[in-house]
């Protein structure tokens, strides 16, 4: 489900005028006894000369305008002022560089603006003019700084996946924000006040950054999903005040021990795939845990000890342990021994159900 693995468009936006030479008044020419159609090839398929024509199909009273993957170059050419009732604008996968023209949209009615995969480098002040905006997607652009979003008091979903952002900032006034996606950026730390004011945040996605420590998360009292895969974490820490946390994704880090989850009693899913773990431990208190993903670690312990840790969990269903010594050394008995040592609710080993 993740926004963190999507690929940027590599469409070129540099164009030159094409010269077309007149070959005659007719549509067909005779050459060497064969009848040929005179076709002038388009040598610049990226260039669309009249962006305004792209929006012509939408009536003036449209509440949704969807112009996806059409090589739109500039908002100014779309005649956006005529859409007085617009609520949602989708301009994904185009060639837009400037979004200052957003200010011509109906400020009070706009609820969603989607500019995923364009060539935007700066968040214009015009973005800050929409008091009722609920969703803003600026993923897969070239943005370096989070700014001009502090007036979006009703914003619930904010996407900055795959940009060039190095600092989490200027978000403290977004008190209604529920979902924040910052995967695939250049964030190197979580500062003391980075999440201050985001008391209603339920999901945060920080995969593919360079964050070394899980700290300064105490403001996120209502957080349910924390994804911080593919960073530089060495320890599970700083989660004591996240008592509503349900899903924790920590794969592809450098964690050597399962710990620090004493207060996270609502946890249902724990992903520690591809770390440096040697043992499954400190989980027996998580009575709502259903999924443990721990493939590609260095886990080498007895099946009985795994049963002691997980066997009494009433809702536990799924375990992933492939790629660990415990699986490689016991390939013929691996599944049977797990079934014998885990509880009645247990259903799946490494993506395969154990019973019909």
From TrEMBL:
Acidic residues compositional bias, start-end: 10-20
UniProt-listed InterPro entries: Leu-rich_rpt, Leu-rich_rpt_4, Leu-rich_rpt_typical-subtyp, LRR_dom_sf, SDS22/Internalin_LRR
Biased composition (Basic and acidic residues): 21-31
Principal subcellular localisation of the protein: nucleus
Transmembrane segment boundaries: none
Places the protein is found: Nucleus
Region (Disordered): 1-33
Single GO cellular component term: nucleus
Keywords: Leucine-rich repeat, Nucleus, Repeat
Similarity field: Belongs to the SDS22 family.
Protein's name in the database: WGS project CCBQ000000000 data, contig 00098
Lineage, broadest ranks: Eukaryota, Fungi, Dikarya, Ascomycota, Saccharomycotina
């Amino acid at each position: 489900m993740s926004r963190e693995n999507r690929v940027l468009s590599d469409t070129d936006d540099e164009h030159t005028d094409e010269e077309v030479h007149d070959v005659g008044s007719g549509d067909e020419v005779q050459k060497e006894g064969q009848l040929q159609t005179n076709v002038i090839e388009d040598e610049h398929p990226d260039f669309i000369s009249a962006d305004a024509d792209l929006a012509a199909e939408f009536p003036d009273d449209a509440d949704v305008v969807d112009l996806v993957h059409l090589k739109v170059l500039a908002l100014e050419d779309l005649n956006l002022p005529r859409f007085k009732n617009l609520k949602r604008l989708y301009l994904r996968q185009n060639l837009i560089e400037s979004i200052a023209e957003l200010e011509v949209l109906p400020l009070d009615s706009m609820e969603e603006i989607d500019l995923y995969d364009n060539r935007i480098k700066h968040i214009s002040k015009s973005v800050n003019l929409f008091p009722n905006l609920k969703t803003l997607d600026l993923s897969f652009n070239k943005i370096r700084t989070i700014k001009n979003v502090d007036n979006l008091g009703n914003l619930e979903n904010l996407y900055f996946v795959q940009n060039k952002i190095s600092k989490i900032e200027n978000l403290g006034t977004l008190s209604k924000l529920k979902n924040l996606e910052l995967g695939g950026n250049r964030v190197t730390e979580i500062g003391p006040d980075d999440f201050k004011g985001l008391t209603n945040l339920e999901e945060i996605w920080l995969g593919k950054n360079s964050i070394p420590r899980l700290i300064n998360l105490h403001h996120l009292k209502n957080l349910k999903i924390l994804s911080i895969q593919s960073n530089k974490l060495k320890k599970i820490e700083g989660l004591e005040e996240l008592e509503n946390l349900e899903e924790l994704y920590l794969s592809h880090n450098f964690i050597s021990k399962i710990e620090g989850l004493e207060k996270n009693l609502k946890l249902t899913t724990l992903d520690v795939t591809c770390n440096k773990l040697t043992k499954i431990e400190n989980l027996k208190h998580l009575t709502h845990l259903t999924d443990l993903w721990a493939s590609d670690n260095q886990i080498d312990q007895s099946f009985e000890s795994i049963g002691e840790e997980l066997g009494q969990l009433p809702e536990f269903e799924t375990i992933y342990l492939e790629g660990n010594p415990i699986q490689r050394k016991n390939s013929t008995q691996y599944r049977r021994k797990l079934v014998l040592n885990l509880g009645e609710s247990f259903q799946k080993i490494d993506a395969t159900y154990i019973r019909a």
